[in-house]
Amino acid sequence: MHDRRAVKSLQLSLRALRVYRICDGLSGKLIYLQVIFAPWAFGTTQPWAIWSMNIGGYSLGALLGIKLAIRALSGYQGHRWDEEETVRDELSPAAKARRFLSRCLAILTVLILLYCLISTVNARSNYHRAGANFEYFHFIPWLPHSYDQSSSRQAFYNYLALAFSFWALRDWLAGKSAAEERAERGHYEESGGRRGMLLPERLRRLLWVLAINGGLLGMEGIVQRMADTGKLLFLVQARVNRDAESQFGPYAYRSNAAQYFNLIWPACLGFWWSLQRASHRTYQRTKALRPKAHDCVLISVIIMAACPIISTTRAGALVTVVGLFAAAAILWTAQRKGDFMAKAGILIFLVVTLGFGALLGWKRMAPRIETEVFDKGLAKRNSLYEIARKIAEDYPMFGTGPGTFESVFQIYRINPEAYWPAQLHNDWLETRITFGWLGSILIYLALIVVLARWFVPGGIPGGVRLAMLIWLGMAGCLVHARYDFPFQIYSIVFVFLVLCAILFSITCKGRKS
């Protein structure tokens, strides 16, 4: 009898292990697919593209749920970077801090989603676009509420999918690849030692996908700009910004393209730096030649960093130039005294990138940075901001509801012929309008927790420069958000969360507590 139970238990464990590995493998493939798909699907701005990404997010959530259930029921944990080696490690201050931050972020994620859901269910009204009128409902005023139920409902669906994607990616990154598992068990010691000098395999592959996909996207955008075509990806005529100069690549609004590239090129530069450092250490130990494939990442970085300048968006070019000098300073400080070749290489990278961007973009950029043209554009946005501040003052605590800015703004127009924007061109203020102070604080706290995780030891090994350059890309996106709307574009929000998941997984202090 006991033997039969033991056999059944073993079969259950083997079956659970097989299902776990299938779910884990599918999660990785789906993450790669989402990273590639998001920008190429015209920036994921159309309903079909948004729902494709949402379905991918829900699928990742389902796979994560199955993996968590298997861990809870069978006790199988797999080989992970975030596991503790001993009981002493589990009781260490660093381990407690990691668990605290993870729980805080999980709670904040639930609260943000719950905030959106309550706003939708407890809606004050719903806007009917066909009749251009509001339908009002009974609601509880001391709970979050929305002034456009349908828009808030769609926002909730989007944020739910993004939350699933974030946590599924974070969980997947913490797992070890088959090669890393073999190395951990003591097999292939030479290969495992060499691999140990690099970033973990899953993180490395994800950054490879980001870098190569971004480079190809940049090349397509440059070719499309040189061809002077008004069709996105040479396929579709945009409904807005129909002229070629207003577009870039798959994005109908060139500033959104610049925001996407400014978000990812610093992270890819940090990835290239990590590969170079690991390769240099391997060469010193084994005298093996440096892999030439690493240079592909640097080429992609140069293309991506030049794209905001070539796209002729003023804010994008400014953020790029400042970011390039900041990135050069970050890498410069990593060099030892007397390492003139490495420092010369940093200067060459800076000059080549700026030169490439200026060669293909300065002729069209120059007229757009004239004082008169710049002042007119800024004056137009400031007039919108004045109206927006009145909306924020009228709905201070709970806001108007997630995703409701376009519907509510029309009420504040001076006359029916006045400009009616779909986005405010100021995501900081638009977030305050739609989420109110309460919802905005939850979002900002979640970002602070993500940034704080890197300073706690334990987790995926990562370098200081990689983290600093990821911070640089995220900071550039937050600067863009002051005068534009990167966080209203699904593909940009998704990549921002991908970088957040990486930051929430890596540490520069290794696994020691």
Give the key terms.
globular, 513 residues, 69% helix, 6 strands, two-stranded antiparallel sheet, mainly alpha, single chain
List the helices and strands and how they pair.
Elements: H1 2-40, H2 47-74, H3 87-90, H4 93-121, E1 125-128, E2 133-136, H5 149-174, H6 178-184, H7 189-196, H8 201-227, E3 231-232, E4 236-237, H9 254-286, H10 294-310, H11 314-332, H12 340-365, H13 371-394, H14 405-409, H15 427-453, E5 460-461, H16 464-483, H17 490-503, E6 506-507
Parallel strand pairs: 5-6
Antiparallel strand pairs: 1-2, 3-4
What does this structure look like?
- This protein is mainly α and 513 residues long.
- Helices cover 69% and strands 3% of the residues.
- It is built from 17 helices and six strands.
- The strands form three sheets. Strands 1-2 form a two-stranded antiparallel sheet.
- Strand 3 (231-232) and strand 4 form a beta hairpin.
The percentage of residues in β strands lies in under 5%
User: Helix content range of the residues, please?
Assistant: 55-70%
Count of β-strands: 6
Radius of gyration: 25 Å
Please state the overall shape, judged from the principal axes of the Cα atoms.
globular
Largest sheet: 2 strands, antiparallel
Provide the residue-averaged pLDDT: 86
Write a concise synopsis of the structure shown.
With 513 residues, the chain is mainly α. Helices cover 69% and strands 3% of the residues.
